Amino acid ABC transporter ATP-binding protein (Anaeromassilibacillus senegalensis), 252 residues
Amino acid sequence: MLQAEQIRKGFDGNEVLKGISISVNKGEVLAIIGPSGSGKSTFLRCVTQLETVDSGAITLCGETLVKNGPDGKAVYADKATCSRIGLRIGLVFQNFNLFPHFSVMRNITEAPIRVLGKKREEAEATARELLKKMNLADKADAYPYQLSGGQQQRVSIARALAMEPEILFFDEPTSALDPELTGEILKVIRELAAEHMTMVVVTHEMKFAHDVADYVVFMDDGTIVEQGKPEQLFDSSTNERTRAFLARYHDM
C-alpha cells in the first residue's frame, strides 16, 4: 500500500529527512514514534502531497507518485496521476481542520459530492452511518464550535472515511486533546484497526503504538533509528537511543 524509498527533504538548507525508507502492507497499522522535530510529520506531509520531496521514490496503492530522475532529483508523476493517488488516501490532522461555517453533515459530505460526484442522498446516508460509528449520531446538524475537541476529531475521521480511502494517515491525532478525550480517539483507531483498515499513525501515545500497531518505526533527527514489531522495539531493544526514548514509557 505504501513504499517509500530513501526520502530526502530539506528546508532552507536544513535536511529534515535523511533517507527515510518505509513500507506498509494492506491491512497493517504502522506507528511512527520519536521526539518532536525528528521528521515524523514532515514524512507524512511528503507522502500525502502536502510537501514535495527533494529525492527518493514513493509508491502508493500500486501507483508511483514520485521517483528519482537521471540527475538524482525527484520527478513527480503527471497531475492526473497525483490527483488520482490523492483520492485513494485519507489524512486526519492534529488540529481537526474542520470548516467552521459548515455543519457536521456538510463537513463530511462536501468532498464526496463535489470531488467524487456522489448524489447528496447517498453522501448523507454514508455520513449518518459514519457518525453512528463515531458515536455522534445526534451531532449531524451541529457546528464545530458546539463540539468538544474529541468530538471534532471524530468528525474529522468520519470526513476522511467518507472519501473511502485505501490507506489512512494520522498526524498526531491526539496531541491537541486532554487525556480523557485522547481515549475517545484511540478507541476509534483501535476499532478501525480491528476492521483491518490500513493506517499510518504518527503518535506520542506509546501504549497505543505498543498495543495496536503491527509495526513500529522510531525516528530521530531525520533518520530511522530502529524499526520492528512492537514487542521487539518496546520490550527487547538493544539500541541505546531507542531505550533512552522509551525509558519514561517503561517507568510508567
